[in-house]
Amino acid sequence: MDLPNSLTEPDGSAVIRVLCYNIRSLRDDEEALARVIRACAPDLVFVQEAPRFFRWRKHAARLAAKTDLVVLTGGATAAGPLILCSLRVTVERTEDVLLPLTPGLHRRGFATAVVRIAGVRAALISTHLSLQAAERHEQAGLLLDRLAAMDAPYGIAAGDVNEGPEGPTFRRLAASLQDCRAVSPWGGEATFPATAPDRRLDAVFASRGVQVLGCGVPSGLSDGLPGIHEADLKAASDHLPVLAALRLPARP
């Protein structure tokens, strides 16, 4: 099954492609990463582990340029999560959010934005949740609260959950939002490690009003994405990307 392309429907609804990708601070093959992202033709890229240190803005801008996208928000100011977007997206507002710091653990944050696509408003959150189970579960609650407070008809959250669908944090998110892969499976399932994936740690979630047309790990020609090659997927990062096609119905 081919994943639908981005389009604006006659009734004003927007079909968008959303990509979720942990890029390991661009420590791997950046050209392979750019080829994978371009081949997915996304409207939105929810990035985790974006560069956070020396000249991080320059590195983020370079990746955006290589993928025909622009930097929407995030990066070091969100402790790693970043959002890239196509020129189809109109930005209404952005905010980078640092989460409470647990001594001895890595600082976490959200890259957030409210955007319009074909006139349809949506709230976005890119996240990378904690490695520590209790903190991770608390952060999921903060994410749900934040998404609800952003006051948009639709919400999309994507990121590295750091646990699989059987875990309590993943289940907490899926109880309030749609786990897009579970709703409409497409492509592959496991996202980590890229060289021999056996766990689904990365996911796209959407609010109940969003129609999920397909979601999963792109694998190439069999998925209607001839620009995706296994060698690039393995070389680009230690995680595989998750690509979703979502329909956002027009709202009066």
TrEMBL record:
Signal peptide: none annotated. InterPro entries: Endo/exonu/phosph_ase_sf, Endo/exonuclease/phosphatase. It comes from the Bacteria. Keywords: Endonuclease, Hydrolase, Nuclease. One of its GO terms (molecular function) is endonuclease activity. Residues 21-239 form the Endonuclease/exonuclease/phosphatase domain. Pfam families: Exo_endo_phos (PF03372). SUPFAM superfamilies: DNase I-like (SSF56219). This is Endonuclease. It comes from Streptomyces bambusae.
